Amino acid sequence: TVYSMLFSWLVDRINQTIAPTASESTLRGYIGLLDIYGFENFDNLNSFEQLLINYANEKMQNHFNTHIFHIEQALYEAENIDWTYVEFKDNQACVDLIDSKINGKSGIFQTLDDSCGSGRQDINANFLSTLNQSWSGNTNGARHPHYVAPRFNSDQRFGVLHYAGEVFYEIDGFAEKNRDSTNTDMKELMARSGNDLLCTITDDAARAEINNAANATASAAAAMASVVSPNRGKLAKKPSFTAAAAPAPAKVAPGARSSFVSKLKEDSISKQFTTSLKQLFVTLEAAEPHFVRCVKPNIYKRADCMNAQETLLQLKYAGMMETIRIRQQGYALRISHKDCFHKYSCLSPTCKTLDALVVSLSKLLSVSNESWQVGTTKIFIRRDMSEKLDRLLWLRYSTSSRTIQRFWRGVLFKR
């Protein structure tokens, strides 16, 4: 707790030092750099720490997916493409399994907090039993698609199907690690300390607690504004965020410290982590993100040496497979009008325009506009349609080559 409060205080002081003056703030923006820990899946043991890390990555991947979908949406609209056929699926269900309530049933973090507050001695076993009853589908409840009950050692671990794959978590030590280890007397001492620095960081932590509550409300309102439209699956425009819209820092009265202390006592590590992430994503939603994926071709930092298995694993954990999946859900292939007509015109030689070619081939293959569409500068083709066209092209080339060979053999025979 002391380290966390001191770290937050230090970050705030650095930001105050480099922040522009009031007259400059309207002219300057800022560049934020978020270096997040990577997805973790160990062969021998995954515990509470890995669940927190992978949950943060799951949230970041959800934000990334939404951003990519916005880019796809903007491109479709710029090309006048009807994208009602595009169904967008994200990893929100996995995020909800970890940090939310679904149909009145608690997710993983809430179940853990409830088990810790039950007063039972076998907290970890009770936690796992409740999870299995709620999400494994072995009882009357429906199975959650992202919850995995292992075939072996099912009384010692549970699994979550993350965007990067299945991860099994050992429950041993979950309850102990979820508790804030600082006892009540220590928190009271910190809140009433005569040390100016300790007193200051305690006040700052209390102020941050109040601001986080206000920002959580703003985040919920922003989430309602960015839900998927039932008509077209269209994401609404993100609400703008300005300094004026941000809640003003609250002043903490001396008498409020004791309530802050009791608040710290109530909040588990998972709850504090979830609250911190919500605050982070309030900031991210207000910014224009750019994503950089770093991949190491080998662990030795050698030139001209690539470990394919390790590289593929990094791409998977970095969420690049999810990006490809999102592209495949829409029109995966985009070709300019000229290139498309040049490539496929041999399939219907009588067609003189691209529109006529599309109509002719659509009738030939018995497909609708859902399979491909002509945009302003490009033609957008689904993956399955692209495969059909390529097979048809291969058949045309094969037939033509046999015709040429037969003709040439006839010429040689006559000679």
Automatic annotation (TrEMBL):
Actin-binding: region residues = 277-299
Which intervals hold domain Myosin motor? 1-397
GO CC annotations? cytoplasm; membrane; myosin complex
What GO terms are given for molecular function? actin filament binding; ATP binding; microfilament motor activity
Q: Which GO terms describe its biological process?
A: actin filament organization
User: Do you know which InterPro entries this protein is assigned to?
Assistant: Kinesin_motor_dom_sf, Myosin_head_motor_dom-like, P-loop_NTPase
Which Pfam family, giving just one, matches this sequence?
Myosin_head
Entry superkingdom: Eukaryota
Q: Which UniProt keywords apply?
A: Actin-binding, ATP-binding, Motor protein, Myosin, Nucleotide-binding
**Family as reported in the entry's similarity comment:** Belongs to the TRAFAC class myosin-kinesin ATPase superfamily. Myosin family.
This protein is called Myosin motor domain-containing protein
- What is the native source organism of this protein? Spumella elongata
